[in-house]
Write a structure and sequence with these properties.
By secondary structure, this protein is an alpha+beta fold. It contains two helices and six strands; from the N terminus they run E-E-H-E-E-H-E-E. Strands 1-2-3-4-5-6 form a six-stranded mixed β-sheet, with helices on one face.
Length: 103
């Protein structure tokens, strides 16, 4: 499985290239205070990582807007690799949430 190519952003971690994506349009779930998971995948595809950084775009629920930067994505990729994410291998997407990798 691969992330749709339209709107991808590139980030380099070490010598590896990863792509990540944030929807431009706010989804129904985001409007109703559901945190958004940011998909990340290595340039040669492999296993997708879904980063839960507490990012949500539902200001009507009192949430402060959060800026997602390439630096944040890089740090989360490094954290996931340290926790055992095998980004070159295929498999079901993993979730990085609260410092843990979950299936």
């Amino acid at each position: 499985m691969a992330i749709a190519k339209k709107g991808l952003r590139k980030v380099i971690v070490g010598d590896e290239i990863f792509y990540w994506k944030i929807r431009k349009k706010v989804s129904h779930n985001e409007r109703h205070d559901v945190e958004y998971e940011i998909p990340v995948q290595h340039e040669n595809e492999g296993q997708i990582l879904l980063i839960n950084a507490g990012f949500c775009r539902s200001e009507s629920y009192g949430r402060e807007p959060m800026e997602i930067t390439p630096g944040l994505i890089q740090s989360k990729i490094i954290e996931a690799i340290e926790l055992g994410w095998k980004f070159h291998q295929s498999g079901k997407p993993l979730r990085l949430m609260n410092g843990k990798l979950l299936l």
